[in-house]
Design a protein that fits this description.
With about 200 residues, this protein is an alpha+beta fold. It is about 50% helix and about 15% strand. It has 2 domains: about 110 residues; about 90 residues, Alpha-Beta Plaits, CATH 3.30.70.100. Strand 2 and strand 3 form a beta hairpin.
Length: about 200
């Protein structure tokens, strides 16, 4: 019975660690859905701890499965035979399986976060004069995953006159191609800052 109680606590701990590991990437999507993109980078400070949180999740889940699958001692089986029928779902292998699936889903979130943002490819841009097209590279602080970069691209692309936006969290940049007669550098910078990330300069 003690092992069953501990497995429930381990499952809860693994969910917490998995969510914390990807919180920096989940927050921008939640901000987009809620229409309050300003707090998108609130948890970007967690990014350096992500490898440790992933390790903690794997370790906790591994131990929980070990506790659940290890052979019981004979006297423990004799004592628990009447209690097995009453085992709550939260302490079952099925629940642990659901927790494991959810944890993997959360840990992998940065890899598929971009699907929540609209594609720039669908935007039609009419270029009247090619000489009006300008390209600027902004240094952006606070992006920690592809989801963050997609968030920046999504918000900048809403401005008029934007031809193309390529944000990269690895390089901490946002490359913007735009029609300078329809949108200004200040407006683009304001759109990037509005996501919660910060323009710290231009290249």
């Amino acid at each position: 019975m003690k092992n069953q109680n501990s497995s429930g606590k381990l499952a809860g701990a693994s969910i917490f660690a998995a969510i914390a590991a990807s919180l920096c990437c989940i927050t921008p999507v939640l901000a987009l859905l809620a229409g309050t993109s300003g707090f998108a980078s609130t948890f970007s400070w967690l990014e350096p701890a992500r490898p440790y949180l992933i390790g903690l999740t794997v370790a906790v889940l591994g131990f929980a499965w070990y506790q659940k699958l290890k052979p019981q001692k004979t006297n423990a089986i004799d004592c628990a035979c009447d209690e097995d029928d009453k085992t709550p779902f939260i302490q079952s292998k099925g629940f642990l399986g659901i927790v494991t699936f959810f944890a993997v889903l959360m840990l992998a979130f940065p890899n598929y976060a971009h699907i929540f943002y609209s594609s720039n490819d669908k935007k039609e841009v009419v270029i009247v004069n090619a000489s009006d097209i300008q390209t600027e590279i902004f240094d952006v602080k606070g992006m920690t995953c592809n989801g963050c970069a997609s968030h920046v691209e999504n918000d900048v692309n809403r401005l008029p006159g934007i031809v193309k936006v390529d944000a990269s969290y690895e390089e901490a940049t946002a490359k913007v191609e735009f029609d300078k007669t329809k949108v200004s550098l200040a407006q683009i910078e304001e759109a990037i800052n509005g996501t919660g990330y910060k323009v710290i300069g231009k290249k």
